[in-house]
Amino acid sequence: MVRKIADSAGYSKKLHIEMDAEPGVSLGFHIKSEQTQRLLSQRWDHVVLQVLSSDQYSPKRSASAWVDAQNLIKEVQAKGSLPVMFVTWRYTDQCTDNAGMPTSASDLSPLGFVDMHFNIQQQHARLAKLTGVDLVNVGRLWEELQSQPEHVNLYHDCNHPSIYGSYLAALMFYGYFSGDEIANVTFRPEGISAEEAEALTKTVSRYLAKNTQD
Asked: Residue of 85, 109, 169, 173 with fewest CB within 10 Å of its CB?
């Protein structure tokens, strides 16, 4: 989707994108993965990293995940590529234990899933401070949109993105990669109307204009 967005906007570079993202896989797994290591041995302009969503619920549950993130960021930097973190979003109250959520009362926060958003933001800010990694903070804009009474549904289920959520994230990454004004984007995925696509591109454009990397 990011490549289609870039092409439709007339971006001067032809993006080459490869993904190594199996369901339920942690960054600790990727550190040991031969497939990941093979990809990292190549020269990339950017390497996008994402912490497993269920590892981001609370500081108690995710301590090792952020150590793994630091180690993988350093490895990417040592290989001459620029790492960037995909900052994701919190779960909704529809999530259950089967979705990778806490299995005991001691894991639960008084603020529930809202607190998950705070943890995601705090941990990524700390990670950026420690390593200098760039953040594409989809989760912050995502959370802002939840407070708007007539926003589109960004969730497909309790945690995965709908086509609207995927489009929002892809627009954010195109804006990061290109540094260009995304108002030039004409691509819209099937299932999103022209009016909805225009609203989302304007939303991302305003957000990027107001927020620098932080």
From this structure: 109
**Cα atoms in the 13 Å half-sphere on the side-chain side of 90:** 23
pLDDT digits (tens, 9 = 90+) for 140-153: 999 999 888 777 89
Mean pLDDT score of the chain: 88
Total structural domains in the chain?
1
57-66, 85-94, 99-108, 171-180: lowest mean pLDDT where?
A: 99-108
Rounded Cα distance, 15 and 147, in Å: 34
**115 is written with which tokens?**
């607190």
Cα dihedral 174, 177, 181, 184 in deg (nearest 10): -50
- The reply to whether 201 falls in a domain is yes
pLDDT tens digits for 3-46?
A: 999 999 999 999 999 999 988 899 999 999 999 999 999 989 99
Please check whether residue 123 lies inside any domain of the structure. Answer: yes
Collapse the DSSP code of 155 into the 3-class scheme (helix H, G, I; strand E, B; otherwise coil) and give the result.
strand
Q: Which stretches within the chain are classed as H helix?
A: 2-8, 27-32, 34-40, 59-78, 112-131, 138-146, 163-178, 194-210
Tell me phi and psi for residue 6, to 5 degrees. -60, -45
| Model confidence pLDDT, tens digit, residues 106-119 | 454 444 577 889 99
Range of the domain at 44: 2-15+25-210
Assign residue 198 the CATH number of its domain.
Answer: 3.40.50.1110
